[in-house]
Design goal:
By secondary structure, this protein is mainly alpha-helical. It has helices at 5-20, 31-38, 42-54, 87-112, 115-133, 138-153, 157-173, 180-198, 202-226; strands at residues 58-61, 65-68. The N and C termini lie far apart (53 Å).
């Protein structure tokens, strides 16, 4: 059975994007040009664009045009973690996954990162410190970016998509992901990891990342203990 025309057009449009190597944030040709490129009507192009936008591949900006999304086709919660009732168990498991993956990723980053990559990472580290000192909640977003950049620098395509999802999920399911005790340790940890990557020292990068993840996990566990969080991830007083 032949697939619907819109589905075929969406697939061809995605192939066109990859073939032309449009970078994140690039603006696509207008609807008329895309219709010619794909050999379909403009209404079909419109539906194909909507389909890719729903998959976080494209971003439609009213009055401006269609752009390559920075989300790289990754859904906000692709694994459905928001529907897992046991927040404590899920968060603990996600930290365990980070513990298994991220030290090795940092080790590879120290081996394969370019000078330009390291410069950008340094800028993010400074931005995180400024946000933490100002108590600006954007530091959470920047922290995800820090770990995502290291994943990209590792050269492993799979982990560069997986790590942001894991880190964002931990923050989505835990509104109090960070606390005041974490401020100083986070700054020091990021500096140590950055220094190891700058020095091209894989073992130091591995150890620095492992120490960072364990410290953050312990801080979250201590926070739960102080708030008397029960096994369902809800304050006991609300049960």
């Amino acid at each position: 059975m032949a697939r619907p025309l819109v589905e075929q057009a969406a697939e061809r449009l995605l192939h066109l994007i990859l073939e032309r190597e449009y970078p994140i944030g690039a603006k696509l040709p207008n609807e008329y040009e895309l219709a010619q490129d794909l050999d379909v009507g403009r209404s079909t192009v419109r539906e194909a664009v909507r389909s890719l936008a729903a998959r976080n591949i494209l971003e439609v900006r009213q009055g401006s045009g269609t752009y390559i999304s920075s989300k790289k086709g990754v859904a906000e919660d692709p694994f459905g973690f928001a529907f897992v009732k046991d927040r404590v168990k899920l968060t603990t498991d996600l930290f365990e996954l980070r513990y298994l993956l991220e030290p090795r990723i940092a080790e590879r980053a120290a081996q394969f990162a370019s000078d330009e990559d390291i410069k950008r990472l340094e800028e993010v580290v400074y931005a995180i410190e400024e946000a933490l000192e100002a108590n600006d909640p954007i530091h959470l977003e920047l922290d995800v970016k820090f770990h995502s950049m290291i994943a990209d620098m590792s050269g492993n395509i799979a982990v560069s998509s997986l790590i942001p999802v894991i880190n964002q999920s931990i923050q989505i399911i835990n509104e109090d992901y960070t606390n005041r005790q974490m401020k100083k340790t986070s700054i020091e940890a990021h500096r140590n990891i950055l220094k190891a990557i700058q020095s091209r020292h894989p073992i130091a990068a591995y150890d620095g990342m492992m120490s960072h993840i364990l410290t953050v996990r312990q801080s979250v566990l201590n926070d739960w203990f102080d708030k008397k969080i029960d096994i369902q991830g809800l304050p006991s007083s609300k049960k």
